[in-house]
Structure formats: C-alpha cells, structure tokens
Amino acid sequence: MRVKELAKHYNRTTSTICTILKQKESLKKIKPAKGVKIISKHRTDVHETMENLLLVWLMEKQLAEDSVTEGIICEKARSISSDLQQQTPGTSAEEESLKASRGWFDNFKKRTGIHSVVRHGEAASADVKAAEEFVKTFAEFVEAEGYIPQQIFNCDETGLFWKKMPRRTYITEEEKKMPGHKPMKDRLTLALCAHASGDLQNKAYSHTHSENPRALKHTR
Fold first, then answer.
1. Which DSSP helix (H) or strand (E) runs through 193?
2. CB atoms inside a 10 Å sphere around CB 50
3. Which end of the chain is more exposed for a tag (fewer CB within 10 A), N or C?
C-alpha cells in the first residue's frame, strides 16, 4: 500500500506514517509489555530487568504475607534500578535513572496486572448525622455566648497502633485475594488538645496500658 492509502486507512497523517516506516527496524525490536497500547519511547534493558526483579520481590512479599504499599514498591524500584546501574558497564546515569513516579507506578500496574486488596477491615462506626447536627448547634452556642476562637478548646483521645501494618497491599495478577492476618494490637493512647484559632497546640500526652485495667477491677 502507498503512504497515502495507509494514512487514510489508519486515520493518521502521511508524516506520521513516513516516520514509522523510517523507524520500522527499531520498532520491530520493541517487545511491549502486557497492557501497553502506546509506545512513547524505547524502554531500556535496565528498566525491563528492574521491573522483572521487582515483580519477583513482590511475589516473595506476597508469599510471606507482608503488606506493601505504593510508596514501598516505588522505593524498592529505585533501589533495584540504582543497583543495576552500578552493575551495568557503560550505563548512563541520566538515561537510566528511575524516578518511580506516580505515572510509572500506574503503568507498572497495567504491565504486570498487580492490584490492591484489603487484608482486613471493619465498618465505620461514626455517627455522621449526629456530628453534622452538633457542628450547627455548637456554632449557634458560640455566637450566642460571644466566645472568640482562642477561648474554644477541643481535647480528645485517640489510639495509635504503632505496630499495625497497612490495611491494603498489592498482589500479583494471578491471585484474587490475600489471606487475612491478625493485626498487632500494641497501642498507645494519645490525648490531643488545641483551640479553634489553630495557633496553640498543646503537647500530646500519651500512655500505654492502664495501671488498673477495667477488666480486672474485681480481682484486686
């Protein structure tokens, strides 16, 4: 077929068809990964090797039932890429450097089929409607009494599960779910306090276990 006929058939300009024909030998050598429909540039061997090793590492984490987040995967990708650069003679640091950005991670998911799943979770118990009603009632009370933001304090306690792993993890395409595990319950209780203007935040108070646990109040 002539160039004009190809351009009409694929709905592309003749200049685009000519460019593709000039680069046909290099394009034939490219082996696009699964899920890739647009090739913007030739992927280097270092990047291909890095992603293969990264997928192996991800499988090992999956078998060990360890949770991995997007940040952990990106950091591991940078580490593997850096090691490969040092082991590959004649590699240009500028050409082979990997930023492991959000865009790269999205494309990596498409190429490998990894997906995010929830390992454990529980339904939210907060009463949203009551909270909305309280905001309105409290605002009317403040206005009626004439309080200023520096006079309005909020103090509340919260639990910090300092050993708890992330709820979500990434697994390979072949797996549909990740076996659940019993999350660590080691926790601290934090008391946080600040006033409405936001320029005064008291130092957080914390404590571990109660000196006299409620469950054991009848045994002492």
1. strand 188-195
2. 24
3. C
Say if strands 205-207 and 188-195 run parallel, antiparallel, or are unpaired: antiparallel
CATH of domain 41-113: 1.10.10.60
Q: Is 15 exposed, middle or buried (0-12, 13-18, 19+ CB in 10 A)?
A: exposed
Under 8 Å between Cβ of 106 and 70 = no
CA 220, CA 214: separation in Å to the nearest integer?
11
Q: What is the pLDDT along the chain (220 residues), one digit of tens a residue?
A: 888 898 889 888 988 889 888 888 877 776 665 555 666 555 677 888 888 899 888 888 877 777 788 888 899 999 998 888 888 766 555 455 678 888 888 888 888 888 776 655 444 456 778 888 888 999 999 999 999 988 999 888 887 766 665 666 666 666 555 555 555 556 678 888 988 888 887 888 877 666 666 666 676 5
Phi–psi pair at 168, nearest 5 degrees: -105, 150
* Whole-structure pTM value: 0.44
- As given in the structure block, the two tokens for residue 208 are 């571990």
Task: List the domain boundaries for the chain.
Answer: 1-30, 41-113, 151-216
